[in-house]
């Protein structure tokens, strides 16, 4: 840090950037987000001495600190201003630029953090990030902009194309969604083999929807031999999942559905020994989570007593 401080005192923007990075990570100095933000902003304002990629990175890091409220009170307006400068003023084929483009696109899509919701604008940012090779942007285009966004013409075939690009780069949620598309035949011919090829790695990486869909496949014998023991295994894995970002809103209902089906397997003795107590336990859990079908089953059980 001594040499960086000497360089910064002489006006070196590179030194300012390096000092900021040390304060951000706590490497060699106590972590200090306020100092990191101050140094990133000084570096970002430099008109010379700082390479393009580091200038973009300075704006991105400063924007992230304002966005997260670290080192300064949360300020979405300043965060977005830095993100835009990282993107529009300093063009370069870097992951930094793609990350800023992703951030802008997501905020436009969600209509939060100081941004007015604008689906067309979000697609514009995601397309720019995608051209930089961003799997996150390709995933967003497939799962959000084209498949789910209101105000945007749906195109399931194009959605699959984006998901395939993102999934091939390792994006877990894209793998899960792509597997579901093959399972249901959405945008592609139904193909259980390809569905499992994408669902299994996504399930191993924690995707709750992938786990639930695999359980369905084993229960129904869809592309695999019927195996309710394996179906029970994947239903239990679904219940124990920590939802991924795009599963967060639907996870409560998904978990209830998995609990309902676990109850049914116990009730019918499929894949596990018949156990009415366990069946009632899972029906009750599903009903408390909002499953009308589980509640109906509980009411029928009560009426039989």
The gist of it:
The protein is mainly α and 305 residues long.
CATH class of the domain at 199-305: Mainly Alpha
CATH architectural group of the domain at 199-305 = Alpha Horseshoe
Write down how many β-strands occur, each being a DSSP E stretch of 2 or more residues. 0
CATH topology category name of the domain at 199-305: Serine Threonine Protein Phosphatase 5, Tetratricopeptide repeat
- Sum up the overall morphology in one term: elongated
Protein architecture, described:
This protein is mostly helical and 305 residues long. The chain has a domain at 199-305: Serine Threonine Protein Phosphatase 5, Tetratricopeptide repeat (Alpha Horseshoe). 69% of the residues lie in helices and 0% in strands. The protein has helices at 2-9, 13-25, 33-44, 52-68, 76-88, 95-110, 119-131, 135-145, 156-168, 172-184, 192-204, 208-220, 228-239, 251-268, 276-288, 292-304. Helix 11 (192-204) packs across helix 12 (208-220). It is elongated. The chain starts with a helix and ends with a helix.
What topology does this entry show?
Layout (H helix, E strand, L loop, with lengths): L1 H8 L3 H13 L7 H12 L7 H17 L7 H13 L6 H16 L8 H13 L3 H11 L10 H13 L3 H13 L7 H13 L3 H13 L7 H12 L11 H18 L7 H13 L3 H13 L1
């Amino acid at each position: 840090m001594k040499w960086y401080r000497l360089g910064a005192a002489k006006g070196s923007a590179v030194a300012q950037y390096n000092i900021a990075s040390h304060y951000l990570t706590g490497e060699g100095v106590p972590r200090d987000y306020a100092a990191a933000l101050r140094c990133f902003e000084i570096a970002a304002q430099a008109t010379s001495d700082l390479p393009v990629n580091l200038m973009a990175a300075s704006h991105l890091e400063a924007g992230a600190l304002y966005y997260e409220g670290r080192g300064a009170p949360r300020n979405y307006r300043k965060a977005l201003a830095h993100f835009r400068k990282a993107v529009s003023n300093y063009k370069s084929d870097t992951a930094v630029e793609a990350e800023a483009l992703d951030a802008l696109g997501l905020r436009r899509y969600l209509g939060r953090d100081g941004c007015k919701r604008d689906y067309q604008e979000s697609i514009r940012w995601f397309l720019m990030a995608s051209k930089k090779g961003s799997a996150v942007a390709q995933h967003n285009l497939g799962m959000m902009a084209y498949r789910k966004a209101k105000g945007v013409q749906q195109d399931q075939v194009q959605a699959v194309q984006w998901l395939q690009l993102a999934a091939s780069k390792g994006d877990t949620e894209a793998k899960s969604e792509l597997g579901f598309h093959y399972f249901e035949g959405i945008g592609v011919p139904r193909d259980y083999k390809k569905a499992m090829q994408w669902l299994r790695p996504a399930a191993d990486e924690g995707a709750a929807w992938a786990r639930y869909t695999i359980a369905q496949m084993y229960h129904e014998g869809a592309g695999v031999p019927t195996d309710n023991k394996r179906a029970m295994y994947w239903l239990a894995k679904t219940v124990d999942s920590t939802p991924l970002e795009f599963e967060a809103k639907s996870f409560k209902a998904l978990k209830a559905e998995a609990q309902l089906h676990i109850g049914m397997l116990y009730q019918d003795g499929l894949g596990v020994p018949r156990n009415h107590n366990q069946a009632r336990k899972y029906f009750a859990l599903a009903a408390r989570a909002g499953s009308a079908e589980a509640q109906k089953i509980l009411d029928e059980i009560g009426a039989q007593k």
